[in-house]
Amino acid sequence: MTHLTSSLWRGAVASALLGLSACGGGGDAAAPDATKVEGIVSSESQLTCTTCGTTRYSDIQGGFGYICSEARAAAVSALDYTMQSQCPAGSCNVVYTNGRCTPVGPNRTDGFEMNVTATYSCCQ
Questions:
Q1: What is the Cβ-side half-sphere exposure of residue 36, based on CA atoms within 13 angstroms?
Q2: What is the per-residue pLDDT across 87-107, written as a single tens digit (0 to 9) for each?
Q3: Is the Cβ–Cβ distance between 65 and 73 less than 8 Å?
Q4: Engineering a disulfide at 114: which of 46, 98, 101, 110 sits with its beta carbon 3.0 to 4.6 angstroms away?
Q5: Predicted pLDDT of residue 89
Q6: Domain coordinates of the chain in residue numbers?
């Protein structure tokens, strides 16, 4: 595992743990059933929040990686940080929307980039 890959992986895991402990929005890696996992995280968030606010926020972040799942994890990690800044009590009803994963250069070894959008509410 390269240093960049290792750093991205550790960042994604740390973001997931921080997100879950802060009432939602875990940053899981792209998986075939990622929507199901995110739905479970959002459902759990609703149980741990006193009240989920009615105001919806939407943010977009981009990420880079040597494969698409790494690029997505980097973008989700950045979104988790943004949500934690916007919602000190935690976020709830988080919905991630993946953008298109595109190569950075002419060679597949140059890496990939992906934008991810998160729409969410804040715990109150």
A1: 3
A2: 999 999 999 999 999 999 888
A3: yes
A4: 101
A5: 92
A6: 63-122
Question: CB count, 10 Å around CB of 79?
Answer: 25
Q: With 80 as the cut, is the pLDDT of residue 13 above it? A: no
HSE-up of 66 (CA within 13 Å, CB side)? 10
Query: How many residues appear in the chain?
Result: 124
- How far apart are alpha carbons 46 and 41 in whole angstroms? 9
**CA torsion 20→5→100→75, rounded to 10°?**
40
- What pLDDT digit, counting tens, does each position of 25-59 carry? 433 344 444 444 454 444 454 456 889 999 999 99
* C-alpha span between 98 and 77 (Å, rounded): 13
Compute the distance between CA of residue 8 and CA of residue 6 in angstroms, rounded to an integer. Answer: 6
CA angle 35–37–42, rounded 5-degree value: 90
pTM above 0.85, yes or no: no
Q: Are 113 and 92 in contact (CB under 8 A)?
A: no
Q: How far apart are CA 55 and CA 116, in angstroms?
A: 20
With tokens 């959002």, the residue in question is 42
